[in-house]
Design goal:
Distance between the termini: 46 Å
Number of strands: 22
Largest sheet: 8 strands, mixed
Strand content: 15-25%
Structural class: alpha+beta
Shape: globular
Number of helices: 12
């Protein structure tokens, strides 16, 4: 019998697990995929929004501003990349200036600091490649960019270090209410728990509707993106938005913490909760609208495209509450943008709900910090040489595009909640994320995975389950 089971190991589930790990309780996270960070959290804009967009008084507004405030200290504690770069919302016509001013007023009401309205000259001084016909902009210096994988994995690893159990490849198929608590029927057997936190992303409505008579329907919205090479990474220095509309914040252009340029996303509603295929229509929309905001986009530098899905809830707000007719079942669903920015505050909010209901007591030995995988690329030559002397694997280059060594890959596999697939390695150390998209290093990474996991190389997957990289080859020929 667990005290709390959290369903979903995305950034919300991991943030909740980390906050709850401060308390004396037996906690488990269950995740249907083979790794943490496999749903919405792995395919998004990676923006830490300032907090001016959400309706004043909404959960999105409150948790966005609080999460933004916490992100810098959290990045220091848990050692993941975060930069406070600022953002601009562009207005192209004087007739739209009232909408820009409304965003400013909303940001002020939400408690966003240091917002400013800039004229055309001020905007172009900050971002020379912004559209030449920009009329004005809203400047939010507290906005930032983060590595969403690094954030998610850091939260999960710190929760694990504080005693939270993780059961991966474990899908919840049914939930039954017990006299005290719940029985979760999973693909790995039955788990019993006093309380459930439903952080299951796009499937949050499915799980909620298993236990509650008050049904919820989440809408999947697909977002197509294009990622550009590092050579294009300084085309803009801040995140550039158009004026938002009813479908969201619009197609943005932003640098990433790893030096690339990212453009997207679309907002296309779909019935398919697994529908992450890009479309020609979607990518053309990305290129066209991004080109309206930023001049001379170096689109020949695109190295890959991808799509992510986010869960849109009725009422256009997060749903974070105990189900009205199911005591002990706490929903954390409809977590779309600004979910990444809000996740530290989401964790606080859920922990606060359960602390009060369960009378949780704080641990005396909570571990507040976590150290990430050493990155030789940001070290001085002296530090790098010392690292290689200590561990020669850090001198064996595997991924040339991203300059990733065997030592980093070994660390990604061997650390708590370590990688078990090619995508797991990518998310932790970026091997295969560069210009050639794994064309050179994939076989070598597969060899390391097979060796470290004691597996046949034919069993190595891209992302778990049946995503095999090699099929139809006789073992004797390898």
């Amino acid at each position: 019998m667990y005290d709390i089971v959290i369903i979903g190991a995305g950034v919300s589930g991991a943030a909740i697990a980390r906050e709850l790990s401060r308390y004396q309780a037996r906690i488990c996270v269950v995740e249907k995929e083979e790794d943490v960070c496999c749903g919405t959290s792995k395919a998004n804009s990676a923006i830490v929004h300032a907090g001016y967009d959400a309706v004043t008084g909404s959960l999105k507004a409150k948790l966005n501003v609080r999460g933004n405030e916490r992100m810098e200290s959290l990045a220091r504690e848990l050692d993941f990349p975060f930069r406070r770069t600022g953002s601009l919302v562009l207005c192209f016509h004087e007739t739209d200036l009232s909408r820009l001013l409304a965003l400013y007023d909303r940001g002020q009401a939400n408690g966003v600091p240091d917002l400013r309205i800039l004229n055309r000259e001020e905007t172009l001084k900050l971002e020379p490649n912004a559209a030449e016909d920009v009329h004005a902009s809203l400047y939010a210096p507290t906005a930032g960019i983060v590595c969403p994988f690094g954030l998610n994995i850091a939260l999960a690893e710190n929760a694990y270090a504080n005693g939270v159990e993780f059961k991966l490849d474990t899908e919840v198929k049914d939930i039954k209410r017990l006299e005290t608590g719940f029985a979760l029927h999973t693909t790995q057997g039955i788990l019993k728990t006093r309380y459930v936190v439903n952080a299951a992303g796009l499937y949050g409505d499915v799980l909620h509707n298993m236990v509650s008579e008050k049904k919820i329907r989440l809408t999947a919205r697909r977002g197509d993106y294009c990622l550009l090479d590092r050579e294009a990474g300084k085309h803009v220095m801040r995140t550039i938005f158009p004026l938002p509309d009813e479908m969201g914040k619009g197609i943005l252009v932003t640098p990433t913490v790893h030096g690339n340029l990212l453009i997207g996303p679309t907002a296309i509603e779909t019935e398919d909760k697994e529908g992450t295929c890009t479309t020609r229509e979607g990518l053309l929309q990305v290129l066209g609208k991004a080109g309206r905001s930023v001049r001379n986009l170096p689109t020949r530098q695109i190295i890959t495209s991808f799509a992510g899905l986010r869960a849109h809830a009725p009422g256009d707000d997060f749903i974070i509450e105990e189900a009205e007719d199911v005591g002990g079942f706490v929903d954390c669903i409809g977590i779309e943008s600004p979910g990444i920015a809000s996740c530290p505050a989401i964790g606080e909010m859920i922990a606060g709900i359960l602390r009060e209901k369960m009378d949780l007591k704080e641990k005396e030995n909570f571990i507040s910090t976590r150290k990430g995988i050493p990155n030789p690329n940001i070290m001085s030559m002296e530090e790098r040489n010392a690292l290689i002397r200590e561990n020669p694997a850090y001198g064996n280059l595997i991924c040339r595009c991203e300059m990733i060594s065997e030592g980093e890959i070994l660390d990604a596999i061997r650390r708590p909640l370590g990688a078990r697939s090619l995508d797991g390695i990518k998310r932790r150390v970026r091997a295969g994320m560069g210009r050639c998209q794994g064309g050179f290093c994939t076989p070598r990474v597969m060899e390391i995975l097979a060796r470290e996991l004691g597996a046949d190389i034919r069993d190595i997957t891209k992302s778990g389950k049946d995503s095999l990289m090699i099929k139809g080859i006789n073992k004797d020929s390898l």
